[in-house]
Amino acid sequence: MRQISSEQYKQNLKAKKFLIWLFIISSFMMFAALTSGFIVYTAGSAERGLKTILPQAFKYSSAVIIISSITMHLAYLSGKRLQFSKQKLYLIITISLGFLFTYFQFSAWQTLTEQGVFFVNYNASQSFVYIFSGAHLVHILAGIIMLFFALAGVYQNIPQVRNIFRLEVSSIFWHFIDILWIYLYVFLLLNQ
Amino acid sequence: MASTAIHDTAVLHHHDHGHDGHHKENFITKYIFSQDHKMIAKQFLITGIIMAVIAMVISVLFRLQLGWPDKTFPLLETFLGGWAEGGRIKPDFYLALVTIHGTMMVFFVLTAGLSGTFSNLLIPLQLGARDMASPFLNMLSYWFFFTACVIMMASFFTATGPASAGWTVYPPLSALPKAISGSGIGMTLWLVSMTFFIASSLIGALNYISTVLNMRTKGMDMWKMPLTIWAFFLTAIIGVLSFPVLVSAVVLLIFDRSFGTSFYLSDIVIAGQVLPNQGGSPILWEHLFWFLGHPEVYIVIMPALGITSEVIATNSRKPIFGYHAMVYSLIGITVLSFIVWGHHMFVTGMNPFLGGVFMITTLIIAVPSAVKTFNYLATLWRGNIRFTPAMLFAIGLVSFFISGGLTGIFLGNAALDINLHDTYFVVAHFHLVMGSAAIFGMLCGVYHWFPKMFGRLMDEKLGYLHFWLTFIGAYLVFFPMHFMGLDGVPRRYYAFTEFEFMKEWLTVNTFITWAAILSALAQVAFLWNFFYSIFYGKKSSQNPWQSNTIEWTTPVERIHGNWPGEIPTVYRWPYDYSKPGHHEDFISQVTPFSETMSSNLPHDFEGNPEAERIQEEWIKNNPVPQKATEEV
Predict the structure, then answer these.
(1) What is the ipTM of this complex?
(2) Nearest residue in chain A measured CA to CA from B11
């Protein structure tokens, strides 16, 4: 029989929390590869390049995701201060903002197609815009699922250690995809 | 605050229950969906061995074609049916065999089979942890790998056959389903399989890194870790940084294949029909692929190097020569592995200046590699060598690493590569330096840690037979290929009967095929030994190799949670072999310095003045007995 000290339990949680940082690194590498691919591809010939104006919707979605990062942090703080009803509220707001962000991305795609910038395109620089935002959107959906888990935790009244753990992990991830989108957007703006 | 306190106890209670060593395990949770790192390691190993056998049989099949291009083997038709109509392997199927041999060996055997087995087994055991950071993800990692294997095998049962574009799956062959027969469903299955595989190795790598950084036992600082752990740790870092790049590349490839985009495609005519795709660049794939592909070969070789360090030190009964140099050279290889990918692309129309840059970075890798090689040799030098089968395989690795590494200096040269690229010289080079060397590292690990995995010993005599036949066989297979390559014989060709200058190499090809068959048969000795010993091998003692690392302080029975009581504390580095003044030729990492007063050295105390004072006092009180040194 073995006694597991609370210290060791915390060590396990620390190791698990570390996993999310590592995942962020690998995810960052994926986008680094995609954006490098864009640079290599676009530099190959003068006919390539974005050659279009990015939709306004990208601006709105950027604003939405920045706000959602703030509400995410507020949810985390209230969770830490044991204000669970506030935590629920902020989590719900963050999730809604996540969906709003998704909506704006889709409407941006719509604007792009109206401008004649299609995904299936002989200028793959333009296809890359869809790849960037699409791959990022997959991360947003994953983030929303994590937020739902954090929210479900509060409703099920799980132990505070685990509640904080879920909150921390999802907020680290959420801030990451926020920064990731800003990076992608700025990258696209610079190549416009 | 009261609620927090209650919550906390609830967690602890729940947790105690979950990790109670005595709770019931049924067959499924113990052997199939196991979350115990030792069981997962065994699952990886046995799946890896099965994949290795399949990939080896595949290689014998295409060697038959190369060895006797005009002969028919009716037996082949019996087994392969339409793939070998009239007893000769079809050209399409030959390409598929080459592709799947490469894919399986590189990814399934030498990445999952090697890292998956030994990282899982040794990281918790050698660092003093109960299990991985996330046992659940660890289990998921294995099952993704298993799924990948099943899907890859399934492609043999499709009408058009498995992927045939080579293990590097360059577009357009991989991007156009109509390009060759293997580009159809076979290629789709390849992509699906690799998606699972990438997920598996990423999850595994995340787990390894987190465990190494967060779950070491008391006293185990980074500089007390065995070199195996350093190697697995850095390998995992390479994996985390490079596999996502392959994901990006594959995503774009999938869109090109199935959605009509043109990332990689341009100006293509198939069967007289002009395809609409314009503006794409297949070079883009090569960049993205080799940004993973080159680090991948270090993912393959570094765990093998780590295992070898441990086994050579243990069986030479000497401290590893240059522990810090070994670690720094591993770090050097890790960093350099990311800035050399261009040497696979010297002849793609790359700017010659850029080629020069990649040439320099490539040749710099010779430095850390040579440091490692010399350190192995220096460790062996005047050691009290025990030639266990594991030790022989470790020495075999060093041999292959040297002879294969030397040809890397030729290939890394942008000018020489114009002549040598895509010839058998390349095949010879990488089969020695990363193929044979890594598989020897893996076999070395299997022989050495078999007692830890199964509580029994493998048969030594069969081990020697296995080693010598494989070692000689591998050299007989790959050494002649250098000369074929220098003469310009290209790799991946179905037959060399159509070219006048290659005809003189036919006899060499026949010779190589015989050598390959010999090496393949030698593996029967291993397979018999391995599976027989699992059930009927000699029972192992707790520390059969008299090794210092802490996995040998666990009970032979391999319990869940690894150590029955508290996890032992570590006091010293793992290489205190034959330390002067000690009565035994090894001192376990868990032995405190206070128990080895007769052998302690001033630098053991890392500048702790109190410990140094105690030691000095002890030496004063226990003068070394004068031996009769005058008798000469």
Answers:
(1) 0.91
(2) A159
Q: How confident is the model at residue A1 (pLDDT cuts 50, 70, 90)?
A: very low
Q: Please check whether residues B531 and B569 belong to one and the same domain.
A: no
Alpha carbons within 13 A on the beta-carbon side of B583: 3
> How far is residue B161's CA from residue B148's CA, in Å, rounded to a whole number?
17
- Across the A:B interface, residue pairs with CB atoms under 8 Å apart total 143
Given a cut of 50, whether residue B632 has pLDDT beyond it is no
- The model's pLDDT over B415-426, given as tens digits with 9 standing for 90+, comes to 999 999 999 999
User: Considering CB atoms only, which of B209, B284, B565 is closest to A40?
Assistant: B284
For residues B181-206, average pLDDT: 94
Residue B348 has pLDDT above 70, yes or no: yes
Bridge partners (DSSP) of residue B457 are B538
Q: Is the CB of A159 less than 8 angstroms away from the CB of B288?
A: no
Q: Which of B279, B432, B283, B441 is nearest to B347 (CA)?
A: B283
CATH number of the domain bearing residue B63: 1.20.210.10
Structural domain total, chain B: 2
State the DSSP code for B565: S
* Average pLDDT value over all residues in chain B: 91
Is residue B509 a part of any domain in this protein? yes
Instruction: State the smallest CA–CA distance between residue A19 and chain B in angstroms.
Output: 6
Report d(CA B523, CA B326) in Å as an integer: 31
Number of Cβ within a 10 Å radius of residue A101: 26
pLDDT on residue A8? 66
pLDDT in tens, B490-502: 999 998 888 888 8
Kindly report, residue by residue over A96-119, the tens digit of the pLDDT: 999 999 999 999 999 999 998 999
Please indicate if any CB of chain A lies within 8 Å of the CB of B245.
yes
Decide if A25 and B241 are in contact by the 8 Å CB cutoff: yes
**Phi, psi at B257, each rounded to 5°:** -65, -45
Q: Which residues of A touch B20 (CB under 8 A)?
A: 1-2
Structure tokens at B357: 């840059």
Please list the residues that pair with B538 across neighbouring strands.
Answer: B457
Residue B189 · residue B154 · CB < 8 Å:
yes
Chain A residues within an 8 Å CB radius of B11? 9, 159, 161-162
Cβ-defined contact of A11 to B260 (cutoff 8 Å): no
- For chain A, domains (ranges, CATH) are 6-190 (1.20.120.80)
Best B9, B202, B247 member to test A by mutation, with max A CBs in 10 Å, is B247
Interface test with B, best of A127, A158, A166 (most B CBs within 10 A): A127
Q: Is the peptide bond before B319 cis (omega within 30 degrees of 0)?
A: no
Q: Domain range for residue B609?
A: 550-621
Question: Which of B11, B16, B207 is facing A161, going by the closest CB pair?
Answer: B11
| pLDDT over 50 at B19, yes or no | no
